[in-house]
Amino acid sequence: MTKRHVGAVLLVCAGIVWLYGGALSSLVSQWASDDDYSHGFFVIPLAAFFAWERRAALARAPIRPGVEGLLLLGASLLVFLAGILGAELFLTRSSLIGVLAGAVLFIWGREHFRILLFPLAFLLFMIPLPAIVFNQIAFPLQLVASRLGETAIAAAGIPVLREGNVLQLPNITLEVVEACSGIRSLVSLLMLGALLGYFAEPRTPGRVIIALAAIPIAIIANATRVAGTGLASHWASPAAAEGFFHTFSGWIMFVVALIGLVMVQRLVARIQLPAWRPHATSVEA
User: Fold this and answer.
1) Which of 193, 246, 264, 268 sits a CA distance of 20 to 30 A from 253?
2) Does 61 have pLDDT greater than 50?
């Protein structure tokens, strides 16, 4: 890397700190206070590791600065401005990834961008969804968990009446609230699915399958938790629906879901899939 490129990198870093200091500070605060996105603390170190892992490929790649990078930078800065003016945190935060991608394209060119595409895309996991999107996902998940929980409880011979996301049992009323919708485990499992696919599956189609498998696994695991809570509340004690037992069941089901992801990975490894793998991930340590 020439002195000119080092200077360009330092200039970009200084500009990011100046522009995004407040956005990054609020992002860290949300990671610390919002359990749904506490995994955000791991995203940047992992993305940095993925980029470092590609250092040999980056060193071999030709440097051909592209004007399209400047266009992407400008578009991302416009998104940042729109986020600031509209007080929309998601736009402000997500524009940072566009700025980073545009800087890579403009300073080094398409080959470097292709090599760093996965680390850059992985950064999306650190950005909380906007409230309107979060609610559009969370409420349907609440209903799905309620319906599947109702089916399992009724199959066990326990009378149950469901009204929306509320389950009425003979001795207790269970409400599948937003925190129990499974959105937390869904986001975390998607990230873990991407990691598992990256480290354990060399084929891109297989990686996509493993990551997407996190969605039905998270839904089934959460519905099982709801059903298990109802069964335990009826057969043992209503206390099973709250406090330590409720929290502990969440951890147990997350571990079960993670085991399910590993099983999917083992299954995918046995399936004949195209062996194509992007050059960006074929790097030397």
Assistant:
1) 268
2) yes
Mean pLDDT value of segment 50-62:
92
Q: Which of 223, 208, 39 is nearest to 149 (CA)?
A: 223
Residue 212 banded pLDDT, cuts 50, 70, 90 = very high
Burial of 228 (0-12, 13-18, 19+ CB in 10 A): middle
**Angle made by CA atoms 242, 230, 168, in degrees to the nearest 5:** 100
Q: What was the pLDDT predicted at 99?
A: 93
* 161-163 and 166-168 strand pairing: antiparallel
Burial 18-43 (b: 16+ CB within 10 A, else e): ebbeebbeebeebbeeeebbebbeeb
Which SS3 state, helix, strand or coil, does residue 273 take? coil
Q: Report the Cα–Cα distance between both ends of the chain, in Å, rounded.
A: 19
SS3 61: coil
Residues 230, 240: Cα–Cα separation, whole Å? 8
| Cβ–Cβ < 8 Å for 152, 164 | no
Domain limits of the chain? 3-128, 132-277
pTM for this model (two decimals) = 0.81
**What is the average per-residue pLDDT within 72-94?**
91
pLDDT at residue 43, as a whole number: 94
Cα angle 26, 31, 32 (rounded to 5 degrees) comes to 95
Q: Identity (one letter) of the amino acid at 118?
A: F
